[in-house]
Amino acid sequence: MKSRGKIGGGGVFGGWSSLGLPAVLLLCIFFFFLGFFGSSLLSQQVETESSLHPRPRVLKEEEYDPLPRGDSGDDSFTTIPFQILSWRPRALYFPGFATAKQCESIIKMAKVKLAPSTLALRKGETAENTKGIRTSSGMFISSSEDKTGILALIEKKIERATMIPRSNGEAFNVLRYEIGQRYNSHYDAFNPTEYGPQKSQRIASFLLYLSDVEEGGETMFPFENGENADANYDFRKCIGLKVRPRRGDGLLFYSLYPNGTIDPSSLHGSCPVIKGQKWVATKWLRNEEEYD
After folding, report:
1. 20 to 30 A from 288, CA-CA: which of 49, 188, 190, 269?
2. Which has the minimum average pLDDT: 28-37, 102-111, 249-258?
3. Residue 199 pLDDT more than 50?
4. Which Pfam families would you find in this protein's record (predicted)?
């Protein structure tokens, strides 16, 4: 029986010494370049995968220094969180836009001046034949009339959120909806063919919800993304995209396209309140500072 040979000369390392110094140097160079090119290929693969599936990056203020500002600009960053609810119409939701104390103060100043809400009438319409379309109570108040300064603070924040100057905004319309009260679907912009020539136009609306509503009272967009947009739509129906009122939250939507024409999907309304009360402060924003 043949015996197995033994590895002599110190085992494996002994084999390296038998190769000679030039061979060892060549092998070292070979393995160096093999590792270098291998790591390069692996790095390129990781970069490709990360570019195809980029991770969201959170902006941290300390990473950036504010730029030199213009005379009318700010010298610090402004962060106002929002969620895009829809692109048709362009609608954005702002959680925690106002504090509970601010909301309570606005309700308190509005309560003493409430009156039945009215409508802008189209040709052929009268107060009598439009009964039931808008059944809330409301009042108008400008920030200059508010001695507490709360409405001015809200107005400045709306200005930053929309990038529409405060001077383009109408007075706040503070509304109260009680059980069963509603506002049928309508447009905030005024169609000249129905309302006559307009010196200016409402381009956007900002709704600040002043109270929670136990049930009902949603702001609805029945034509969102082209849904239900046919001649058979019942303007009293509460369908489509619905935004539930929550105290302190804001809702911004645009009534006009960027080219200045009315966006049909901006049709909206207020669903009937089923349980509780709904308080909301509406700020209409126009394309001109001077308006009727």
Report:
1. 269
2. 28-37
3. yes
4. 2OG-FeII_Oxy_3
Other C-beta atoms lying within 10 Å of the C-beta of residue 109 = 19
Tokens representing 203 are 């381009």
Residue 23 structure tokens: 């061979």
Which amino acid, one-letter code, is at 127?
Answer: A
In DSSP notation, the chain reads -PPPPP--SSTHHHHHHHH-HHHHHHHHHHHHHHHHHHHHHHHHHHHHHHHHSPPP----GGG-PPPPP-TTS-SS------EEEEETTEEEEETT-S-HHHHHHHHHHHHTT-EE---PPPTT--TTTTTTSB--EEEEE-GGG-TTSHHHHHHHHHHHHHT--GGGBPPEEEEEE-BT--EEEE-SS--HHHH---SS-EEEEEEEE-S--SEE--EEETTGGGTT-STT--TT---SEEE---TT-EEEEESB-TTSSB-GGG-EEEPPEEES-EEEEEEEEESSSS--
